[in-house]
Amino acid sequence: MIKIKNYTNGKLVDTQKSEEIKIYNPSTGKIYATCPESNSIDLNSAIKSAKKAFPGWSNLSYKKRGRFLFDIADLLKKNSNEFAKYESIDNGKPLSLSKKLDIPRAIDNLRFFASIINSNESNAYHMENIGINYTLKQPIGIVGTISPWNLPLYLFTWKIAPALVAGNCVIAKPSEITPMTAYLFSKLCIKVGLPKGVLNILHGQGSVIGSKIVKHKDIKAISFTGGTTTGEEIARECSKTFKKLNLEMGGKNPVLVFDDCNYSKMIKNVIKSSFLNQGQICLAGSRIYVQKKIYKKFKNDFIKSVKKIKTGDPFDDNSDQGAIVSKNHLDKINSYIEIAKNEGCKILIGGKRIKLNSDCENGWFFSPTVIENFNNKSKVNQEEIFDPIVTLNSFDTDKEVVEFANDNSYGLASIIWTQNINRAHRIAHEIKSGIVWINCWLERDLRTPFGGFKKSGYGKEGGVHALDFFTQEKNICIKYYD
Ligand code: NAD
Fold this sequence. Notes:
Helix 5 (152-165) links the parallel strand 8 (142-146) and strand 9 (169-173). The protein has helices at residues 40-59, 62-78, 80-91, 95-116, 152-165, 180-192, 206-215, 228-241, 263-275, 292-307, 327-342, 379-382, 398-406, 421-430, 463-469; strands spanning 2-3, 6-8, 11-13, 20-25, 30-36, 124-127, 131-139, 142-146, 169-173, 199-201, 221-225, 244-248, 253-257, 285-291, 346-349, 353-354, 365-366, 369-372, 389-395, 410-411, 413-417, 435-438, 453-454, 457-458, 471-479. With 482 residues, it is of the alpha/beta class.
């Protein structure tokens, strides 16, 4: 049994009250680790060390701060097999995916922000014959980062890297469902000699330590990624003290398939945007709208491809899909299958828990599922399920499909498949989401603004947008003459 510890004041420590949370391996359904249920005493001790560290850290040159991130990234690269293994044990995702996506992206996040800090320029505004203004982008102080379970280390580093390199001290809370790689990460910080108190990692439940972090008066900004209901609660709390807040929340992303698309490329990609990481990616395309002329063909070909997806042991090289992250989540999926049936939808394939043999017999596996649904107002078309479930809908005209796509409270990402350049640009312009992919999916340039519209969030991550969030800009005005 692995005992996960908090990381505060440069050391691995037990929680002061020694309360623990059980950590499950989703592919076996068995407990394999425990993590601390941190409390106010742990938080206060982390804050104390962050306060002590802040003057030194914020006055260090950005190059020196970046150097620490480069060193951690190098160590992470060296240990990437171990990190990938534990990401898959903790989350249930295929080892091949942890190796190809999660860990390399965590390394990229660290290196990217360590480099881009060089181009975080301030501004100057000249008032002719009067004087000049210039701005300083200064660190905020102590900031909190809260991340989810679907891309554990990837999203954890996506937040802490810009926060740290901008000169803040961080209190980070990974998901209590997948805390393992953040724990291993704290060991790397110790190895590279990151100054104590600069980064503190507190484990525990969102409703306990997460909520305390959000409320703490010494934490001046919160960067949150997770569900919209949680985000709403955090926004209410932060508004009481005008705490700076960035929210990256849920999605119910439409995929618009036009009859003039590059068909074979589209099918391959739509399979990926539907089911990669068991469909547990906020950017997944979970509502598929297909133009009527090719609807029947698409339906047949798509189902044929779904049949080929192998759900199995995350450690089997042949598995395309692993386990669902928790029993709670599996129950949630099942409840949506019942909802779909009650709404009169047709389950074209899947819709069932999968029982595997051997070590994985008690694991939480679910079959990739396609639901035919022509009612855009139905719950399965409106609510985020966050799993290997997609709905299939049809449409006639451009106008109609844009209305369908926009008729949703979320607005994170959209995916458009067409070869018509005018249509592609016009629809990208009309669609209400923070990210639009045309003839591709999940192509990421870390400099671009990342974030959603409507109930998917506010504020942007990525590149200088993240650095802007983790700094406060001050304008200084100098007059030329008395
Ligand atoms: P969640 O909201 O349940 O939890 C996210 C994090 O918030 C966890 O660390 C949790 O412990 C913490 N938390 C929970 N309650 C809290 C509270 N009251 N105060 C402070 N912290 C609290 O989300 P989840 O189930 O871990 O993740 C899935 C969700 O995340 C999905 O909705 C998905 O779309 C979203 N997501 C969004 C993005 C994005 O970039 N927009 C990326 C990944 C996941």
